[in-house]
Amino acid sequence: MLVFILRRLVQALIVMLAVAFIAFMMFQYVGDPVSNMLGQDATPEQRAELRRELGLDKPAPVQFAHFVVNAAQGEFGLSLRQGRRVSSLIVERLPATLELSAVAALIALGAGIPLGVYAALRRGRGDSQLLMILSLLGVSLPTFVIGPLLMLVFAVGLTWLPASQRGDVVALGPWTTGLLTLDGLRHLVLPATTLAIFQLTLIMRLVRAEMLEVLRTDYIKFARARGLTNRTVYFGHALRNTLVPVITITGLQLGSLIAFSIITETVFQWPGMGLLFIQSVQFADIPVMAAYLCLISLIFVTINLVVDLLYFSVDPRLRVEGRMH
Predict the structure, then answer these.
(1) In sequence order, what are the residues at sequence separation of 6 or more whose Cβ sits closer than 8 angstroms to the Cβ of residue 289?
(2) For strand 175-177 and strand 170-172, is the pairing parallel, antiparallel, or unpaired?
(3) What is the pTM of this model?
(4) For 86-324, which CATH class?
(5) What does pLDDT average to in each consecutive run of 10 residues of the chain (325 residues)?
């Protein structure tokens, strides 16, 4: 187990170094930070002085080493658009994105897995067919269509829920959350549901397909022959083995909730990192773009490591193979 974790950590380090190199190349070849910060009217002396302050006059390998060291400390310099430290912008925006993604993940998992099991156990019946039709719509419709539709129905038509922004939040030190206020919860419903629909329907279809496959295996037939109850067969044996391949897809999809919340945050003007990234792209704010790239990569690498570790608790065959090696 320890060797497995160390191997995965080394692989994660290599991936993060590769991502850091890509982010560093953005600094080198996308725009000119000196021109963006000083403008076109700056004198050559002012440009040279700023290049020395930013370390841009040093060789590329030295710059990359400094970039990696600073990135490991969470420092990416100043935002070219706002003139503030990128780390402070991330600290302000990250709670909103993580809160939105976490609630969307709970909705997707909490509804997707039970609905997938239900659709598999009632295969061929009317309610199961209806669920599959609805899931096909959820997978097919893009977020920028689902979001405005939900706003049109629940915010404009029924006026039950607010259509944009984050609402009232509570500050817990540097962390802010809207989960502790009624207004914050109301503002969270529509964007979290919009972000969760695609993942929910994908998880439901995946669980259904895997559940049907597992129910056809010999050991399930043997479990029935032993006289075990349907509840024990379905949830004690079939569902447990269904979750093995589901964990991989689900883990990566939950990571994509954070990475691809950009559209949802833009539609609902949710003040998270996705909206910050869109604004930085429009202005070519390279430090913010590089920080976003590194942070999202770190989240994906971390989730992938956690998913690999979950295999050991779900599939005993991997633990046996680990001891053999």
Answers:
(1) 23, 26, 277, 280, 281
(2) antiparallel
(3) 0.78
(4) mainly alpha
(5) 75 86 74 65 77 72 81 79 82 89 89 88 83 86 88 90 87 86 91 90 87 79 75 74 73 75 88 85 79 85 78 58 49
